[in-house]
Specification:
Distance between the termini: 15 Å
Keywords: Cell membrane, Membrane, Transmembrane, Transmembrane helix, Transport
Family: Belongs to the drug/metabolite transporter (DMT) superfamily. Small multidrug resistance (SMR) (TC 2.A.7.1) family. Gdx/SugE subfamily.
Shape: flat
Subcellular location: Cell membrane
Organism: Brevundimonas staleyi
InterPro entries: EmrE-like, Small_drug/metabolite_transptr, Small_multidrug_res
Oligomer: single chain
Number of domains: 1
């Protein structure tokens, strides 16, 4: 259950990052409200996952999902630039997450 909570927390991090971009520096009400609501939900699920998972593992996975997901959303929905270096960086993040997860202690206390 902790891994599911962590996955959802990471996905919600992508959502709140998108809403934060849409808030234009918290000058637009509803995207600002969305940012805060999804941020709280994401942190709550991360906290729940950390009851079982090691802090380092949970935080690295959460930030990795958010970072790569925000990159994809930026390119697909916001028209941000796509270059081989940005793709390589995203691949390296995902590779690092996989190695971190497989490392001793990466999935349990």
């Amino acid at each position: 259950m902790a891994w599911i909570s962590l996955l959802i927390a990471g996905l919600l991090e992508i959502v709140w990052a998108y809403f934060m971009k849409q808030s234009h520096g918290f000058t637009r009400l509803w995207p600002s409200v969305g940012t805060i609501v999804f941020m709280i939900a994401s942190f709550a699920l991360l906290s729940s996952a950390m009851k079982t998972l090691p802090m380092g593992t949970a935080y690295v996975i959460w930030t990795g999902i958010g970072a790569v997901g925000a990159f994809v959303v930026g390119v697909v929905l916001l028209g941000e630039s796509l270059s081989w270096m940005r793709i390589l960086a995203a691949v390296l993040v995902v590779s690092g997450l996989m190695v971190f997860r497989m490392a001793p202690g990466g999935g349990s206390h």
